[in-house]
Design goal:
With 710 residues, the chain is mainly alpha-helical. 68% of the residues lie in helices and 1% in strands. Strands 1-2 form a two-stranded antiparallel sheet. It is elongated.
């Protein structure tokens, strides 16, 4: 047995999915066609299973996909109804294709699961949108579609159960465990992290990167819990990185007790957060807020620059621990979590689902959004294909639209490559089909016997070998299906080839006209825009702290430009992960960590909000605007220089990302020298934030490894 060749894992996974799709598609088709003699229901049962099982790419395990499929059943049936009635005229069908095609593609903003289901739903709308206009067959269409999808649900849930993946909540809980361990070690002699704890901190931070998490487990939805879970992962990454780079205690000195108290409180808080994320009853009450306030008060009484700098770093990690516990509470309990979170950072905490969906849609409703680009591209292409298919000279226009849907890609290069393979595969499939139809004739028994093994082969080989193989096999499958529904001649193969050529041409045209570079270019542009917005926020924050002024308890300025840039960069990054990687000219392979750019933007936003917030009101005091004195001239000049230095690094990195190979790298920064004598604690808080931003920028080009402690 050991001498037998091992089957590649890709074929094993594809074969399992092929069995599920074949069981559902062939089961529904045979049931209605040969059991009840219903050709319409048989057609819709087969395509209901093929569309959501073969054309869709819903991420996750079989059970996770089954849950998604159950949720989309009402949507699928509604699309069949709308498509049936809009098929009365070509004009109404085209208008419906434009609107519904855009909506189904744009729903990808809701996360990987709706994005994965969208192509199959598009096909279920396309199928009834063609003549004959037969509203009297609507019942058969709905029954067939429902049975096909429900059979697929059963197949996904029962056949070849995959092992469960680690949920993102558990990954965040494990990172919180690591943070507890690190905080505990830093709070007791010798007050440094052991090598094992340092390695664990780096591994925990990397485990929460979206590129390291299965697509189905990424918190990408617009709802409160999903946003908060993504926020939890981001806060956990920030916390373990800050623990990893906490300034060391000078040799021969003992840390101040308020700082040790805060580290112990962080350890308790992270342990409590881990328990909350794992669903332990009663968890979610520990917080380092009291110790943080005590350390802040003690810091303002200290005049030792070394202690002030360490205390500022401690307050940074305490802020991350507070964000982690608050975000975890929202992720687990939703809008009912308390107490009231800070609305600047957790702006979504008290919003209802429709409001959050509207925010997500509006945030992506523009030409800079890759989701918007894709939705416009596919809706225009499908509408054009429907116009062409409405001409009397084009038989079987459905297949031209199917080719447009399945072959249109987000970049022109990818579309061109796919079309070459598809046309070659379809030509081979057409030749094979013509031979089969000519030899077998009208003997449907042969077609019925061959359909199942051919379906298995199609959905096993196609996903692994590529679109050319898939088109070749699918051309034969389609011909055998229609040969059982009505008498067919070898000329059907010729029609199928013509349809693919027309659909491919339409896909190529709109791939050329509508944003032909896809997310690979957009992620670069949006990241550079994000870094420039962050640079503006850094300069404004440093100058505001230096100048002093009134701080409003309602919160600091909203940094609307930076928030908008973050939304666009995150959407482009999400699409970027699904596209083939083609490095730009002059760009080194694997040299840019785009998620580290996002982390830098978040860190800039959160730090600016925190540093410009009003000081906490003393117990018994009255909330109101607080006047903060300016820094002395020496400290103000030093802080402004540091802010300019960080902003300059951001702008230089943005230029380097925008034009790889055309912009020199960042020069070695000159030493800053000693800190100004007598500078207050808020100076060191800002200085620590700026230095942490420099460490974030270093991660962009070094693969995301955590920076070493200063």
């Amino acid at each position: 047995m050991s001498g037998l060749p091992r089957v590649p894992a890709a074929y094993v996974g594809a074969a399992r999915n092929s069995v599920r799709v074949t069981v559902a598609a062939a089961g529904g088709f045979y049931l209605f066609l040969y059991g009840f003699g219903e050709t319409v229901a048989a057609t819709y049962a087969l395509f209901g299973a093929v569309s959501l099982g073969g054309l869709s790419r819903i991420p996750g395990t079989g059970r996770q996909r089954a849950v998604v499929l159950l949720r989309v059943v009402p949507v699928a049936l509604l699309l069949v109804v709308v498509g049936t009635f809009l098929a009365v005229r070509t004009a109404s069908a085209v208008a419906g294709m434009l609107v519904i095609g855009f909506a189904l593609a744009f729903v990808a903003v809701g996360g990987p699961r709706p994005a994965g289901a969208a192509p199959g739903l598009q096909l279920l709308y396309i199928l009834p949108s063609f003549p004959p206009y037969a509203p009297d067959t609507l019942g058969e269409r709905l029954i067939g579609s429902a049975v096909g999808i429900l059979l697929l649900v059963l197949a996904e849930a029962v056949l070849f159960r995959e092992p469960a993946t680690v949920p993102y909540r558990e990954l965040a809980a494990r990172a919180a465990d690591v943070a507890e361990r690190c905080a505990g070690e830093l709070a007791r002699p010798p007050y440094v992290l052991s090598p094992d704890a340092g390695d664990a901190a780096g591994a925990a931070a990397q485990s929460l990167r979206p590129s390291h998490v299965p697509e189905a487990d990424r918190p990408a939805g617009p709802g409160v819990r999903s946003r908060a879970l993504a926020h939890t992962g981001l806060a956990a990454r920030t916390l373990v990185n800050r623990l990893h780079r906490l300034p060391a205690v000078p040799e021969g000195r003992t840390p101040a007790e308020p700082g040790l108290d805060l580290l112990r409180a962080v350890a308790r808080s992270t342990a409590d957060t881990a328990a909350l994320l794992r669903g332990v009853p009663g968890a979610g009450t520990a917080s380092p807020a009291r110790e943080r306030a005590a350390l802040a008060a003690a810091r303002e009484r200290s005049a030792d620059p070394v202690s002030l700098r360490r205390d500022a770093a401690l307050l940074e990690l305490a802020d991350a621990a507070l964000a982690l516990s608050t975000a975890a509470g929202l992720a687990v309990r939703g809008r009912s979590a308390g107490p009231e979170p800070p609305l600047g950072r957790f702006w979504y905490a008290r919003m209802r689902a429709p409001q959050l969906w509207w925010r997500r849609l509006i945030g992506n409703a523009g030409s800079r959004s890759v989701f918007f680009q894709n939705a416009v591209r596919i809706s225009l292409a499908l509408s054009a294909a429907r116009v062409v298919a409405g001409l009397d000279t084009l038989p079987h226009g459905f297949w031209a639209m199917l080719a447009t849907l399945s072959l249109t890609r987000t970049t022109l290069d990818a579309t061109r490559s796919v079309i070459r393979q598809a046309v070659t595969g379809t030509l081979i499939g057409a030749l094979c089909t013509a031979g089969i139809l000519a030899l077998v004739g009208t003997d449907t028994t042969v077609y019925a016997a061959v359909l199942v093994p051919l379906l298995l082969l199609t959905f096993t080989v196609g996903p692994v070998k590529g679109v050319g193989w898939a088109q070749a096999f699918f051309a034969i499958v389609v011909s055998l299906v229609f040969a059982q529904l009505a008498p067919t001649t070898w000329e059907l193969a010729e029609v199928r080839l013509l349809d693919v050529l027309i659909g491919s041409a339409i896909g190529a045209v709109f791939g050329l006209l509508a944003w032909p570079r896809g997310a690979q270019r957009e992620v670069r542009q949006s990241s550079t825009a994000l870094l420039r917005s962050a640079a503006e926020a850094v300069v404004a924050t440093a100058s505001t702290i230096a100048a002093g002024g009134v701080r409003d308890p309602a919160g600091p300025p909203g940094h609307a430009s930076l928030r908008r840039s973050l939304v666009l960069a995150e959407s482009a990054y999400a699409q970027f992960q699904a596209e083939p990687r083609v490095p730009a000219a002059g760009e080194r392979a694997r040299s840019t960590d785009w998620q580290a750019v996002l982390l830098t933007g978040h860190h800039a936003l959160w730090g600016a909000d925190r540093l410009l917030a009003a000081p906490p009101v003393p117990e018994g005091g009255t909330p109101g605007p607080v006047s903060v004195p300016p820094l002395d001239p020496e400290a103000a000049a030093a802080l402004t220089r540091r802010g300019d230095r960080v902003a300059g690094r951001m702008l230089l990195l943005a230029a380097r990302l925008e034009s790889p190979g055309d912009t020199p790298g960042a020069p070695d920064a000159p030493p800053e020298g000693t800190s100004p004598a007598g500078a207050p604690g808020r100076y060191y808080a800002a200085e620590t934030w700026l230095e942490a931003l420099l460490a974030d920028l270093d991660r962009v080009t070094d693969g995301g490894a955590p920076a070493k402690a200063p």
